[in-house]
């Protein structure tokens, strides 16, 4: 029992120093993609005019 | 200061993208000559006629060569002065063949005005004391509306003229 | 009792409520003007009693852009400071002085606008000349806000004296950053108004230097928008985590973002002057680069927000890539309204990057795209966050509880706002790309075919504007209800904490001399050479023009 507790604790410590943020990375990437696409669209308009 | 691994990735790619934007804009501006209009020539706003380009007879479209023009415009509240035609009437429409290189050259005698050819990249501010210039090639035929896009008073929305780009 | 639990005493509450009253009265007046503008622009409606379009446009801009924002922000910041570092009796007295000075200025300017003597829009570009009292009024608003700055600085200073070696509370730190930025940038607008506009409008000097006045105005004009945004960021960083039952993602990164805003918000004014003659294009480009630097703290913020949501969700046991998304309190208006504000900041930010992109500005400058842009930033992101704050702040101040009814009404209000803004700002963006100008009454531009294409979008704006006005009416009802009718009780003043065991915030983040020093150096770098250049190469100045705005 104590050993599993310790393991649990270690895991917790690990997760608090570097939490799982996969969803965050994907979310900000989508935001970034939107920024790039809008910019390219108006840049295209600038070149076409 | 601790930063999450993913945050480092996000910030690096974000800043990288901004740098790419800036480099693209910088190359366009400094090497291809698409600087935003930034003419540095000044004149006396209460005596603009002292400047060659804004003498009564030089206003309007001046042909410089094959498909090369200058358009001199004097803005006042609430009018764009293109000079007079042969019959002595005020010119309200300018006709330019498609593919022409045009230098727009304008100033204002009174307050701030805008100078925008809707649907094109011709867009600049006119400020008393300064000449504004913008050179562009008008490739796409059509009828374009010149509009004042900076508030200049009660008749601001009536300040307009027409530029026709026609196919030869 | 109440004071103990909410941390705001009666006297503080009364002070902050006064600011809130001005905010919401401004919302009604300014919003009504906005509605009328969108109706006029359909071409089917004429203003009664000979009121001019540009007169109501001036009211709209001044009352919403300058008055509502400044009053809400200063009031909200007083509440944050009173809560986190405390407010002495003497400080409160000065806070009242700031309130009355600002209100006096507001009323003076408002009277001039209503008399039709100041239809110069909120940017008051020379050489259009308003009545001198209009400029005096604006001066009072700015001076009043300076008093608030120094009260806030003094509050933190006193706290630090009592808590040597400790970090200032995050929210107090943020307030002081915002007020420092505000003080430094308003020096520019104060200079142009006091040195240029007032003597010139009184006839003491004959002419005004146009480009100097515009450059000083825009030295102030861009940090102005960050002055609006930073209080929203305060709520996102330090209040929302508490509302969703989590902790602050990173105290250090939050402080770093605010420091970056202080440093980079000011030396960027030329990106509003990209299409102006008389400014060296090299310096325009340099300020464009600095403008792009001010995007960086917003990128940091985007990550911090998602991370706060994800970590909190995972701690509550929601797993999977996006499982954490479901834990968010979607039915709590204190979360929902600011969250939708964040969502709106994505297209708003995209538009902002486009606007600042040097020569690309020619596509959008002074088109109604720009109006669409700042109705996403200020009138959606910032204002929805302010509304979200109001739903707990007003009950805290009035000793009442946010009940089910007000929560439902608040949710409805947020959705109405989003729908209205979708139509209005969406139509503005599209019409702007086609070339439709901003700041213009209805016009068919002498039967122009291009202008005919814009009219459909102008109807879109009127539909959106009408929906938004309904949103304003609901919000006003909510404000009255929370002030007078909501059930009595103790509402929580939500302030989030840093996570346990997080590493200590580096002390350098609170080295004020360092950050102010860098700010000043960067301003000097970005402005000294071009500004000297502008002055040395100045054309003769301009006399005042009154007749174009319908006077004289």
Automatic annotation (TrEMBL), chain A:
Keywords: Membrane, Transmembrane, Transmembrane helix
TM helices/strands, residue ranges: 25-48
Protein name listed in UniProt: Cytochrome c oxidase subunit 2A
Annotated organism of origin: Thalassobacillus devorans
From TrEMBL, chain B:
Reactions catalysed: 4 Fe(II)-[cytochrome c] + O2 + 8 H(+)(in) = 4 Fe(III)-[cytochrome c] + 2 H2O + 4 H(+)(out)
Parts of the chain that traverse the membrane: 9-31
Record keywords: Copper, Membrane, Metal-binding, Transmembrane, Transmembrane helix
InterPro entries in the record: Ba3_CcO_II_C, CcO_II-like_C, Copper_CuA, Cupredoxin, NosZ/Cyto_c_oxidase_sub2
Principal subcellular localization: other
Residue ranges of every copy of the Cytochrome oxidase subunit II copper A binding domain listed in the record: 66-168
Function as written in the Swiss-Prot or TrEMBL entry: Subunits I and II form the functional core of the enzyme complex. Electrons originating in cytochrome c are transferred via heme a and Cu(A) to the binuclear center formed by heme a3 and Cu(B).
Protein name: Cytochrome aa3 subunit 2
Organism: Thalassobacillus devorans
Automatic annotation (TrEMBL), chain C:
Gene3D superfamilies: Cytochrome c oxidase-like, subunit I domain
Membrane topology: Multi-pass membrane protein
Cellular compartment(s): Membrane
InterPro entries: Ba3-like_Oxidase_I, Cyt_c_oxase-like_su1_dom, Cyt_c_oxase-like_su1_sf, Cyt_C_Oxase_1, Cyt_c_Oxase_su1_BS
Chain segments annotated as transmembrane: 15-36, 56-82, 94-115, 135-157, 169-198, 218-240, 252-270, 282-306, 335-354, 374-394, 415-436, 456-480, 514-535
Protein origin, superkingdom: Bacteria
Keyword ATP-binding belongs to the record: no
Pfam families according to UniProt: COX1 (PF00115)
Broad class of the protein's primary localization: membrane
Keywords: Electron transport, Heme, Iron, Membrane, Metal-binding, Respiratory chain, Transmembrane, Transmembrane helix, Transport
Domain Cytochrome oxidase subunit I profile as annotated: residue spans: 14-484
Family: Belongs to the heme-copper respiratory oxidase family.
Protein's name according to its UniProt entry: Cytochrome c oxidase subunit I
Species per Swiss-Prot/TrEMBL record: Thalassobacillus devorans
Higher taxonomy: Bacteria, Bacillati, Bacillota, Bacilli, Bacillales
């Amino acid at each position: 029992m104590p050993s599993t507790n310790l393991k649990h604790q270690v895991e917790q410590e690990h997760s608090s120093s570097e939490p799982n943020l996969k969803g965050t990375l994907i979310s900000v990437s989508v935001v970034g993609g939107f920024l790039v696409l809008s910019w390219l669209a108006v840049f295209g308009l600038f070149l076409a005019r | 200061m601790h930063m999450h691994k993913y945050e480092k990735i996000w910030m690096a790619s974000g800043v990288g993208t901004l740098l790419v934007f800036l480099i693209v804009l910088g190359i366009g501006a400094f090497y291809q000559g698409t600087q935003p209009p930034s003419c540095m020539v000044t004149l006396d706003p209460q005596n603009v006629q002292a400047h060659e380009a804004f003498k009564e007879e030089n206003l309007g479209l001046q042909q410089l060569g094959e498909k090369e023009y200058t358009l001199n415009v004097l803005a006042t509240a609430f009018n764009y002065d293109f000079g007079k035609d042969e019959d002595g009437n005020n010119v309200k429409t300018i006709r330019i063949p498609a593919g022409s290189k045009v230098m727009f050259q304008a100033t204002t005698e009174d307050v701030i005005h805008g100078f925008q050819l809707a649907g094109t990249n011709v867009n600049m501010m006119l400020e008393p004391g300064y000449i504004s210039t913008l050179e562009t090639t008008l490739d796409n035929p059509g009828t374009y509306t010149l509009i004042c896009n900076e508030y200049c008073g009660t008749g601001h929305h009536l300040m307009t003229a027409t530029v026709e780009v026609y196919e030869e | 009792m109440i004071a103990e639990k909410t941390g705001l005493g009666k006297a503080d509450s009364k002070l902050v409520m006064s600011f809130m009253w001005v905010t919401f009265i401004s919302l009604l007046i300014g919003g009504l003007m906005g509605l009328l503008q969108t109706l006029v622009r359909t071409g089917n409606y004429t203003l009664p009693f000979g009121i001019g379009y540009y007169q109501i446009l001036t009211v709209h801009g001044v009352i919403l852009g300058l008055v509502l924002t400044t009053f809400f922000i200063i009031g909200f910041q007083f509440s944050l400071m009173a809560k986190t570092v405390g407010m002495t009796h003497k400080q409160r007295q000065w806070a009242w002085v700031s309130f009355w000075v600002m209100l006096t200025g507001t009323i003076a300017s408002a009277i001039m606008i209503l008399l039709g003597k100041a239809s110069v829009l909120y940017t008051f570009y020379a050489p259009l000349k308003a009545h001198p009292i209009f400029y005096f009024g604006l001066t009072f608003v700015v001076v009043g806000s300076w008093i608030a700055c120094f009260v806030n600085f003094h509050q933190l200073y006193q706290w630090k004296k009592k808590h040597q070696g400790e970090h200032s509370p995050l929210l107090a730190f943020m307030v002081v950053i915002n007020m420092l930025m505000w003080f430094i940038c308003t020096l520019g607008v104060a200079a142009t108004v006091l040195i240029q506009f007032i003597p010139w409008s009184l006839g003491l000097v004959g002419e005004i230097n146009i480009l100097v006045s515009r450059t000083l105005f825009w030295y102030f004009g861009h940090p102005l928008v960050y002055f609006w945004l930073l209080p929203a960021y305060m709520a996102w960083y330090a209040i929302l985590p508490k509302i969703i039952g989590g902790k602050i993602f990173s105290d250090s990164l939050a402080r770093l973002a605010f420091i970056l805003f202080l440093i980079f918000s000011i030396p960027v004014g030329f990106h509003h002057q990209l299409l102006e003659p008389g400014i060296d294009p090299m310096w325009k480009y340099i300020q464009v680069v600095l403008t792009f630097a001010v995007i960086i703290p917003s990128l940091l913020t985007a990550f911090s927000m998602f991370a706060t949501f994800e970590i909190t969700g995972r701690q509550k046991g929601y797993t999977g890539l996006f499982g954490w998304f479901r834990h968010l309190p979607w039915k709590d208006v204190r979360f929902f309204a600011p969250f939708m504000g964040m969502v709106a900041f994505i297209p708003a930010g995209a538009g902002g990057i486009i606007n600042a992109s040097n020569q690309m500005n020619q596509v959008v400058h002074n088109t109604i795209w720009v109006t669409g842009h700042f109705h996403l930033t200020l009138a959606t992101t910032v204002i929805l966050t302010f509304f979200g704050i109001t739903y707990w702040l007003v009950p805290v101040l009035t000793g009442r509880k946010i009940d089910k009814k007000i929560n439902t009404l608040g949710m409805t209000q947020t959705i109405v706002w989003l729908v209205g803004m979708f139509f209005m700002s969406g139509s503005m963006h599209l019409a702007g790309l086609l070339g439709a100008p901003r700041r213009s009454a209805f016009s068919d531009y002498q039967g122009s075919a291009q202008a005919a294409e814009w009219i459909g979008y102008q109807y879109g704006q009127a539909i959106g504007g009408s929906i938004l006005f309904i949103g304003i009416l609901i919000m006003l009802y909510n404000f009255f209800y929370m002030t007078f009718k909501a059930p009595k009780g103790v509402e929580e003043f939500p302030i989030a904490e840093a996570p346990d065991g997080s590493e200590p915030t580096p002390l350098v983040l609170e080295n004020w001399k360092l950050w102010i020093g860098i700010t000043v150096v960067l301003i000097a770098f970005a402005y000294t050479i071009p500004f000297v250049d502008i002055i040395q190469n100045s054309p003769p100045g301009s006399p005042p023009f009154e007749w174009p705005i319908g006077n004289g």
